Amino acid sequence: MRTPGERIGEYILRARLGEGGFGEVWRADPVDGSGPPVALKIPTHPEAVQALRREGKIQARLTHPAIVPVLHVDLQNDPPCAAFGLVEGRSVADLLRERRTLPPEEAVRIALAVLDALGYAHSQGVVHRDVKPGKILVGTDGRVLLTDFGLGKAIESVSQSILLSGQRSGGDLARIQGTLRYMAPEQEAGREVTARTDLYALGVVLHEMITGDATRLRFPVPGAPPWLSAAIERATQPGPEARFADAPQFGTALAPKGATTGASKAGEKDRAAVAARVIESLVKGGTPVQPPPPRIDPRPEPPPAATTPATPPASGRATLLGCLVGILFLGGLGFYGWNRRVANMPLTPIQVLRQGEEVTGVAFSPDDHEVYAIGSGSTLVVWEADTGRERARWKMGESATCLAASPGERLLAAGDSDHAVHIWDPQAGRQVVRLEGHTQSPFGVGLSRDGRSAISGSTSLQVFLWDVSTSTRTRVLLDERDRIPLPPRLGGYHAEGCAVALSPDGRLAAAGTADYRVLVWNLDHEGEPERWTEHTDRIGGLAFSATGGVLVSGGWDGQVVRREIGPDRRAEWFKTPGTGVSSVAVSADGVRILAGCFDGSIRLWDSGSPDEVRTFERHAGPVDAVAMTPDGLMAASGGTDGVVRLWKLPARK
């Protein structure tokens, strides 16, 4: 049992806030007194540790004023822990226990803030999956925040929900796969969840805030004005397609900008009173609620009376010629339109392969005949690229964080939570060597073409070079003395390490730093690295072309930068509006660039044009890893949805 005054990692425990099957949550202060108190989660069993790692990974991506921020994750500490922003206040569950119901205007204000948070999370490819009163926090300053993304989409583990000061509520802890009374039918049945699943849960919460009852939905909603009752009823429809399309549309229904037609004056007055209190919280840019289609009279209209004399018929030959011209003309238009539609349709994968875990790394074999994927449970799977047939499945370690393949040898490198880099022979299904020396988990790895050299970067911003044949560390490019504090908006240090890359010839190395720079070393010399400063947020991925003449970087700021290495140092920028980049790949000649994004999208560009080559069918969650064959004609992607998708890419123009 933990006690006040005990030191856990970089924090001193002050007061227990909650406990449950996952572990404990404590109010804690930084050891050095450099910051405000935090909510410190301390898991007590391996499943909870993995849930915490994934929760930190998801929530670190979500920087939003209505989402509780993650400040620091330290899974290498004994015990592991994670620090989250401490909200001075109470949960909606506490308010309902005390007051039973809330006035409609207060309930709508809370719902709008949650919709703002959900809309942002959904745009980043994250579905919460466990929205309920215990996870909606109301601060003493009136702020409303959503917390606990431990069950966020593709998180298949135990979670907890208390991040408040001055409360203890064990009953809200250790929920698995959501809470039944707030679950949409598709979630309860174990089917695919979407953003509309979260909207259903929030509709139930809104019903409970007004009526005090979440076990039985009643319509009209007792105590709610008609327009609010209608909005709740639509949000909680059994079929997802009958609900609001997205969070902004739900928000528009709760706080409309204009009057509605057909409502009573009393109803309008009620609606205006609530809207006046919450209009500032309105989710911007939403799609207005569509009115019902106009009623159509089944009786056909009579044809219009002729007002001009009929035109004499043309000759048979002229008529036939006109028909042929018309057919050819219309056929040409049809073909042109069909071609345009096909070009604009999202690219669909040629194979969808089930990995079974969150996919943290993908790669192709040197001959492109096989595709490799590793998951968060360190399961390595090998498939035949052309047929999708699974060839082998092995357990490589404890919890894999990244994967890289040698461009010339059948060797794989995987970083793992055991602080080591595992080098594997995928044909023999055995570990060749284990590279040890990191003090925390490696989150980026790379191999040279001959398989003799490797690079690794860890969560503590250590970047090492290795001689694979002798299992020795040959050079320290960065170590903990070079550790750089993050900007104040996140606090603490990086929770998820740095991206690294090694050129195929082993002569160049690159790493992303905590201050958002890309460092590039010429390994033939001992001098200082070049420093590139194009990004304004964490570096998600780095990749060299086959010759080492091009380096591509992708960042959480939504920028992808292609830079030529040499005297010209020409750079190109590509944008991923509204989302960040977690992984990048580049073709052998450095011309084609692929990026995986947090919103589940995959972006493809060819150098020389800022326009995307083609849109892709999205993953059901954030994309953690992408890979591309040297010719730029085939790609693989994997992410939190637990699947690997293989893509046949369009030919270059």
Tell me about this structure.
- The chain has 653 residues and is α+β, with helices and mostly antiparallel strands.
- The chain has two domains: 7-281, Transferase(Phosphotransferase) domain 1 (Transferase(Phosphotransferase), domain 1, Orthogonal Bundle), CATH 1.10.510.10; 351-648, 7 Propeller (Methylamine Dehydrogenase, Chain H).
- The protein has nine helices and 36 strands.
- The protein is globular.
Overall pLDDT confidence = 80
**Rg, nearest Å:** 28 Å
**Quaternary state of the chains:** single chain
User: How many β-strand stretches?
Assistant: 36
CATH topology annotation of the largest domain: Methylamine Dehydrogenase, Chain H
* CATH class identity of the largest domain: Mainly Beta
Helix content: 10-25%
Beta-strand fraction estimate: 25-35%
Number of domains: 2
Q: What's the CATH H-level homologous superfamily of the largest domain?
A: YVTN repeat-like/Quinoprotein amine dehydrogenase
Sketch the major β-sheet.
6 strands, antiparallel
CATH architecture of the largest domain: 7 Propeller
Q: Tally the helices.
A: 9
Unreliable sequence segments: 152-177, 256-343, 482-496
